[in-house]
Amino acid sequence: MTGTGGTGTDRGADTGKNRGTTSPRRVVVDCDPGHDDALALLMAAGHPDVEIAAITTVGGNQTLEKVTRNALAVATVAGLEHAVVAAGCDRPLVADAVITAPRTHGASGLDGPVLPAPTVALDPRHGVDVIIETVMAAEPGTITLVPMGPLTNIATAVRREPAVVGRVAEVVLMGGGYTKGNITPAAEFNIYTDPEAAHVVFAAPWRVTMVGLDLTHQARATEDVVERFRALGTRAGDFVVDMLDFFGPAYRAEQGFPAPPVHDVCALVRAVEPDVVTVRPGHVDVELRGEHTRGMTVTDLLGREGRDLDHLVATELDVDRFWDLVIGAVSRLD
Predict the structure, then answer these.
(1) Burial of residue 3, with CB atoms counted within 10 A of its CB: 0-12 exposed, 13-18 middle, 19 or more buried
(2) Is 263 a catalytic residue?
(3) CA dist., res. 201 & res. 188, Å (int)
(4) Could you say which of 47, 263, 283, 311 is catalytic?
(5) Cβ-proximal residues to 167 (8 Å cutoff; 6+ apart), any chain
(6) Cα end-to-end span (Å), the chain
(7) Is-contact 92 199, C-beta < 8 A?
(8) pLDDT (0 to 100) of residue 17
(9) 17 Cβ neighbours under 8 A, 6+ residues apart
């Protein structure tokens, strides 16, 4: 694995050693919508320099059936009529059942907005097959994987076809944190839901950028942000307002935030507009056995004991540019 070297911060460096082109950014979005996943999909759909190569779903915020229904509905709102959307794994690699988050995202996984009847067809292939086939069919270094849920699909793809590791530009994932958790004091939801899968992803010989809670808690949808979406006066803008009108109070009750962080959007932004997010080199291990720390992303930013600082860890968000980018992208959808 090629290490980044050094211990400083980096804003705007190329986000993958294999990337052959920088525009448009071709992304495979692996998600479990989820309000923040949905906003990330809308942002990607409206960004002029992003091509969504595929959308795959994984059981997480809700069951696989529900999050797949949500992904198809969001793709419909975004006008992604020809998007490849495929359902992936419905449970973790080892655990018996997926952990869901109904108190944050509601019984449907996307409570709040009225979900339209999907006009986007579900691809009959398994999501893992879609990931493998998309990466293997593309020129090396032209696909970035952006997982925004549990990492089960990505880990399964690595195990099934190891050659994908050398062909992607980078993995930019939302998950983990270097100082905190949210489902336990030590662990973030996506990693805790399937830590064995996370271990596979972080241990594979490719560059991973961890966009964790330390970064995503900076991306809060304040009332001013909600009003900017409301002022768009578009179908997509109103859809976002309806999402945030549910997500804000639910997140406040569950996590105590005055305004909800839109976690998953941060990973998508780092993948397509890297200089909006400051990163620094680091090494990440996933704790699998700790009684109180299972799912913790143990992050070394100093290279202790000679560890290779082989990944990137997101540390700081340019908040104003972030919201200008996201709202600007959503405004283009109509």
Answers:
(1) middle
(2) yes
(3) 16
(4) 263
(5) 18, 135, 136, 138, 140, 141, 143
(6) 43
(7) no
(8) 39
(9) 2, 141, 169, 170, 207
Query: What is the reported pLDDT for 255?
Result: 85
Residue 250, both tokens: 């639910």
pLDDT of res. 95: 87
> For residue range 149-187, what is the model confidence (pLDDT) as tens digits?
999 999 999 999 999 999 999 999 999 999 999 999 999
Q: With contact defined as beta carbons under 8 Å apart, do 199 and 288 qualify?
A: yes
Q: What is the pLDDT of residue 22?
A: 52
> Which distant-in-sequence residues (6+ apart) come within 8 Å of 277 by Cβ?
11, 211, 215, 266, 269, 270, 314, 316, 317, 318
The ranges of the chain with pLDDT < 70 are 1-23
Compute and round to an integer the Cα radius of gyration of the chain.
18
The domain segmentation of the chain, as residue ranges, is: 10-331
Q: Determine the pLDDT at residue 23.
A: 63
Q: Are 276 and 321 in contact (CB under 8 A)?
A: yes
pLDDT at 10: 60
Would you state the structure tokens that stand for residue 280, as one six-digit string? 């620094």
Give the Cβ contact number of residue 191 at 10 Å. Answer: 32
Instruction: Please check whether residue 257 is in contact with residue 220, taking contact to mean a CB–CB distance below 8 angstroms.
Output: yes
Q: What are the phi and psi torsion angles at 92 (to 5°)?
A: -65, 170
Q: Are 37 and 265 in contact (CB under 8 A)?
A: no
CB-count exposure of residue 226 (10 Å: 0-12, 13-18, 19+): middle
Nearest Cα residue to 217 out of 314, 92, 88 = 314
Query: The tokens of 74 are what?
Result: 């969001």
Match domain 10-331 to its CATH number in 3.90.245.10, 3.40.50.2300, 3.40.50.150, 2.60.40.150.
Answer: 3.90.245.10
